[in-house]
Amino acid sequence: MGLRRLTPPKEEPLTLEEAKAHLRIDGNDEDSHISGLIGAAREHAESITQRAFLTQTHQLSLNGCPDEALLLPKPPIQLVQKLQYIDPLGKAQILKEGADFWTDSTTEPSRIVPIAGWPATASRPGAVVIDFVSGYGESNDVPQPIKQAMLLMIGHWYEHREAVSETSMTTLPLAVDALLNPYRIWRYI
Questions:
Q1: How many C-beta neighbours within 10 Å does residue 82 have?
Q2: Does domain 13-53+139-183 have CATH number 1.20.1440.230?
Q3: Is 2 helix (H, G, I), strand (E, B) or coil?
Q4: Could you give the CA distance from residue 64 to residue 78 in angstroms, rounded to a whole number?
Q5: Under DSSP, is residue 143 helix (H, G, I), strand (E, B) or coil?
Q6: Taking a C-beta distance cutoff of 8 angstroms, is the pair 4, 132 a contact?
Q7: Closest C-alpha to 118, from 76, 62, 161
Q8: 104, 69 in Cβ contact below 8 A?
Q9: pLDDT digit string (tens) for 133-185?
């Protein structure tokens, strides 16, 4: 299985102004650093939860079709753009939503369910390729607990700029896990 992001989000869940208000910073000297922390906090929180927070496009490649429903990573899923496979003769085929499969976005992780079973595929890596759009939407659609966890990470990283110091072995605040755990996806493909 291979997963890659085709298009990144166009914005971050938090603005620079929101992060600076949390950090109680008035000046502009650290804007570049704080902007970097916002992106790092989003990516770290997405990694912990196994979700996409903002609209982005991913491509999943598989060696073949599963026996049952195909689970999609990075929920919530907005849309399956393309489901393509290589048939046993080596020819690319495209499956159509509604005719060949349904997308069930009500479950997490979301799943693609075949209407009449999965077709036979070539025995090769990347025989099935799925392009899909995922994420809550725009920044105002991201749940507030996720944003709060990001603010805690940003504050922690701003205060502790090194991974480890000799005087303090400070780790991320426990509240980060408590805020993100309800959004964590535990089941994978």
A1: 13
A2: no
A3: strand
A4: 23
A5: coil
A6: no
A7: 62
A8: yes
A9: 999 999 999 999 999 999 999 999 998 777 655 555 556 667 999 999 999 99
d(CA 128, CA 80): 13
Specify the DSSP class assigned to residue 189. -
Q: In whole angstroms, how large is the CA radius of gyration of the chain?
A: 20
Mind listing the pLDDT tens digit for each residue in 72-109? 999 999 999 999 999 999 999 999 999 999 999 988 88
Q: Tokens at residue 37, please?
A: 């922390």
Helix, strand, coil distribution of the chain in percent, nearest 5: 30, 25, 45
Percent of the residues in the chain that have a pLDDT greater than 90, as a whole number: 82
Facing residues of 60 across strands? 3, 130
Which sequence spans correspond to the domains of the chain? Answer: 13-53+139-183, 56-134
pLDDT of residue 158: 93
Q: How far apart are CA 155 and CA 173, in angstroms?
A: 10
pTM of the model: 0.87
Structure tokens at 108: 């997490």
- Is residue 90 classed as helix, strand or coil in its secondary structure? coil
Whether residue 76 has a cis bond before it, omega within 30° of 0? yes
Kindly report the length of the chain.
189
